């Protein structure tokens, strides 16, 4: 059963019944469910299906060129689907001619669906894969009103730069581009419920803070175990399913995984992120087009977000937002000893409590539409960012978790609190918020007004300090 992809499923079915030649590009972060979606929608309708060999598989074989391995795998896929035995193609032009002849032989006038999965992996160095694909589509495929070709890839930067935004034949030929986003909290809840996993929303939020909205990771939760037991089983026990996932993830979707990990691990050091200049100063990255390409790739894969802090027009920050990477880097990477009770025994420790606070901020950045809906301003234009004011000359600095700068002249100054109970404001917090509001008030235009906004798990306790918040958004609102 397909969960949380109703719009995408409906769109694919619409394209299937269009009566026209369709070339569809589906992309998104690895493990987000692209292959599952396409296979479920077209499970009884596929004429030909093939997935490129991953870089990990190719590295394990020696003495054979990557291009040769990819062509060999493509040829055997054709044989599997019924093509008569001939020979392994020597180029992608020849491989796609074989596919064309196979489809001609099978053509009875009904819809033919071709699914080419992980095509960035097929595009090995000097392979001319795209030339072969373009020739196949532009000279033959686009003229077949009963043909639907779906190309898919986890290397989102490749899909964007080499396919959907590339100057060439395929850019104009694509009839649909579909990016699959990670699940929201509500979609995670539906997915877990479909597997008879009963977690409270408080624990579903924590699961999101650990593995994000990635269906492949969510499937590892065991309905017979608590959240803490599941975390131990997934990361800290002998043979844990996700213990090696971080390295596998980067090796499979980036052609320079070590460079990408350097950037990600540096960004993990500060919740509000770093500037490009700081990334260059503190990593092995060199300024230039390659760094721009790497940052763009991390953004395209939903690992990183870029934003311009309020009031700093030329100071773009890059912030790590992938929950899985954040959790892994904080608790799993470089652990030399396994401890199958680590999470249960340390769940109330200061270290994990501090992580929850930061991870909840990150969860909120991944649910901006739900926050705006709770504020009643979903359709009002806005920009979101963290905001830091550095101290100096005896003046203290400050940091604001999130600013929502709206075009209706309101700025929501958001404070996030991940508590096991309703949040109770104190005199100290009241003073802190007033100081932040005053500092922010010095740099905003006079026509704008600041609304203190609390985003928390279970609401706000009414007391003499609670009036400082104009709006309170609870965890339940983030599930809408």
Describe this structure in words.
The chain is built from 23 helices and 13 strands. With 480 residues, the chain is an alpha/beta fold. The protein has four domains: 6-179, P-loop containing nucleotide triphosphate hydrolases (Rossmann fold, 3-Layer(aba) Sandwich), CATH 3.40.50; 185-243 and 332-361, no CATH class; 246-329, Arc Repressor Mutant, subunit A; 368-478, 3-Layer(aba) Sandwich (Trna Endonuclease, Chain: A, domain 1). The protein has a five-stranded parallel β-sheet, with helices on both faces. It has a five-stranded mixed β-sheet with strand order 9-10-11-12-13, sandwiched between helices. A three-stranded antiparallel β-sheet has the order 6-8-7. Helix 22 links the parallel strand 11 and strand 12. Helix 4 (66-80) runs parallel beside helix 5. The longest helix is centred in the C-terminal third of the chain and has 16 residues, at 350-365.
